[in-house]
Specification:
The protein starts with a strand and ends with a strand. Helices cover 0% and strands 50% of the residues. The protein is built from no helices and 16 strands. The strands form four sheets. Strands 6-7-5-9-11-12-13 form a seven-stranded antiparallel beta sheet, with no helix packed on it. A hairpin with a 5-residue loop joins strand 6 and strand 7.
Length: 206
């Protein structure tokens, strides 16, 4: 019975295999390059919520009660992280047919809730928030636009929203302070009656 010996040497990028007979003579030799593969699991996604409020200021007390679904609020995406093509939209919003905007309506208490975002990649996400002007009678709409920005980071395999900021024309707005305020005027007009006092002094009016 013949006896054979095998030798193998595995390096970082190569592998060598030889087969020897009982006298140490090389019967077979093979040399190959290989690639080392390291598995990096995808980080678990991050989530974040966003909501706001609606107020109607009534100049003459004739507006009545705010009704649910009376006003509409719009979200537009402004920025995605490099390489990300799918826009993360919040789960309670209605997405437009072209995928460019998301909208929600107010509840009877004046609040509106876009719901929860799910972010599958790290980076910066930016959205513009505004109210839709649907030309209701007597309503002067709040035309303010707000910038909503999320910073998402990979922290040991878990994506985390490390910053959520709302910025308006006058600076940063607190998460619970975003409020679109409309003014209602039913067409009544207020007048202020004034006049000019004329002083007659020796025939001079002034």
């Amino acid at each position: 019975m013949n006896t054979y010996r095998a030798g193998i040497d595995i390096g970082s990028t190569t592998v060598k295999l030889v087969l020897l007979d009982e006298n140490g003579k090389i019967l077979f030799g093979q040399y190959r390059r290989h690639c080392a593969h390291t598995y990096h699991p995808k980080a678990a996604p991050a989530t974040a919520d966003f909501s706001g409020a609606k107020t109607v200021t009534d100049e003459h007390g004739s507006y009545g009660t705010l009704k649910g679904g009376e006003f509409t609020f719009k979200m537009e995406n402004l920025q995605l992280p490099e390489g990300v093509t799918d826009i993360p939209w919040p789960d309670k919003a209605t997405i437009s047919s072209d995928g460019a905007t998301a909208t929600v309506k107010n509840d009877a208490d004046g609040s509106f809730d876009f719901g929860s975002f799910t972010f599958a990649e790290s980076g910066t996400y930016q959205y513009r928030i505004s109210e839709v002007n649907d030309n209701q009678d007597g309503v002067s709409y709040d035309g303010t636009g707000y910038l909503l920005a999320f910073t998402v980071e990979d922290q040991n395999g878990q994506l985390t929203v490390t910053s959520q900021a709302i910025t308006g024309p006058n600076g940063t707005v607190g998460a619970n302070d975003l409020d679109f305020t409309n003014i209602y005027n039913d067409g009544e007009v207020s007048y202020q009656i004034g006049g000019t006092k004329l002083l007659d002094v020796n025939g001079y009016n002034g």
